[in-house]
Structure formats: C-alpha cells, structure tokens
Amino acid sequence: MIDTHAHLEMCDAEPAVVLAEAAQAGVERVLTIGRGQAVELAERFDDVWAITGWHPHEAQEAVGRVEELRPLLAHPRVVALGECGLDFYYDNAPSGVQRDVFAEQIALANEVHKPLVVHTREADDVTFPLLEEARVPVVLHCFSSVARLDEALERGYACSFAGNITFPKGAELREAAARVPDHLLLAETDSPYLAPVPMRGRPNRPANVMHTLNCLAEVRGAEPDVLERLIELNARRLFGLP
C-alpha cells in the first residue's frame, strides 16, 4: 500500500519510527509534502518520495518566490508540485494572493511536466476555473469537492480520499468514493491530520492509511487487497514511480 499524501516532518515521532510502523502495517511507500525538508527525507529513505510546493496558507510568503520551486522540482525524488491551491475556509492569506500564487504554480507545473496536488477548501468555484489551465495530471487531495464530483471525473482528476471518509459525518464522501472510477482513485492520510476511525483524536500516521483503504473497499464492494493493488498502480502511473 502507498500513502500518497503525508507531512512526515510534522508527525509525532521521528520519520524512521513512523516509516517502520507504516511498513509493519503494510504501507511500503509514502509521498511526503513540503519543500527542502521533504526532499531531504526522500533522499534519506528509499520508501519516501517528495511533493513540493506552496500551500495556500503560505501564499503571502510565496509572493515572488514560486520560481524557488523549480530546482526542487528537478530533483529525481520529487514527483509532483503541491500541495497548492486555495483555502477560503481558514483564509490565512488574502484570496487574491492565493489565486495569483496558485495560478503561478499551475503554470510552473505545466512547464516542468509535473502533476499538481491540489488543496481546495470552500473555494471550488475559483479552484476549478483556474485548473482549466492545467496541462498535467491533477490530484484533488483530501477530496471534498462532492458538488463538483461529476466535473472532476469528466476532467480526469484523480480523487484522493483521507481519514475523514471514515467519520460518522462522512456519508457524502463515502458516496462520492463509491462513484470514482478505478483509474482515478487514490488514498492518503494527510498525516498528522485527519486520523481515521478508530484512531480519531490522535495524531495521524501513514500506517493508518490501511483504515482508509478498508473503508474504501467497503463502500466500493471490493476486496481490500485488490483495491490496494489498484491504488498502488494508480500512484505509480500518475506520479511516475518505479
């Protein structure tokens, strides 16, 4: 199994410990999010690959600095640009600044031919029009765009489901997950956030992606081991993993 989205440096234990626990649970690879630290972790651990970008919460800091991603994106252990996008729920940066930084990152991803890993919260009405400019694969991280599911599928966006699909209030997410075509399905933890049931309330770790996998298998009427192989194949194809 692969955890396609984690923040390893933010977990509540050393990366080596977190990764050993994940391997014991059957999670053989982890894609970690960040910039320099993420690349360093990918260099240290054979089972870690990096995704690098400016988070929408960091948009103010990123003004005039998107080009700093270019050398990181050229690193052989970096497989995508992200997570980038828009977050109008927390609104930690002005919406106009978020839009500009996101648009710059879309353009950069097009130039370097790297997939985009997208964060969108309370912002789909702006996110989706901006993504019309994307000429690379798009992953909707921690999928929540339920009202836009049909449009996302028509555009061929991969939908990555996190631990919140297991929450009691996650019925709409589970319904959406049941409808995603096999070739567009991914799973993640977003560690250390969104620990799934029955780990809810604790810091999340990549090993817990197995709980999300089991929930996905249940709502899709699939065997977990079959779905595990499917998600691994999707991740390999989308991110160019060996």
Please provide a brief summary of the model:
The chain is an alpha/beta fold and 242 residues long.
Explain what you see.
With 242 residues, this protein is of the alpha/beta class. It has one domain: TIM Barrel. The protein has an eight-stranded parallel sheet. β7, α8 and β8 form a beta-alpha-beta unit. The protein is globular and about 45 Å long. 50% of the residues are buried.
Topology:
Blueprint: E1 2-6, H1 15-25, E2 29-34, H2 36-44, E3 48-52, H3 59-62, H4 69-73, E4 78-87, H5 95-112, E5 116-121, H6 124-131, E6 138-140, H7 149-155, E7 158-161, H8 171-179, E8 185-187, H9 209-220, H10 224-239
Parallel strand pairs: 1-2, 2-3, 3-4, 4-5, 5-6, 6-7, 7-8
Helix pairs in contact: 5-6, 8-9
Give a quick set of tags describing it:
TIM Barrel; 10 helices; 242 residues
Number of domains: 1
Instruction: Please identify, by name, the CATH architecture.
Output: Alpha-Beta Barrel
**The CATH C-level class name:** Alpha Beta
What is the helix fraction of residues, given as a range? Answer: 40-55%
- The pLDDT mean sits at 98
What best-fitting shape do the alpha-carbon axes yield?
Answer: globular
How far apart, in Å, are the first and last alpha carbons? 14 Å
SSE succession:
EHEHEHHEHEHEHEHEHH
> Please, what is the CATH homologous superfamily?
Metal-dependent hydrolases
Q: Any idea of the CATH topology?
A: TIM Barrel
Biggest sheet overview = 8 strands, parallel
Low-confidence spans: none
Number of separate strands: 8
Helix-strand category? alpha/beta
Number of helices, counting only DSSP H or I runs of 4 residues or more:
10
**Strand order across the biggest sheet?**
1-2-3-4-5-6-7-8
Radius of gyration: 16 Å
Q: Classify the beta-strand content into a percent band.
A: 15-25%
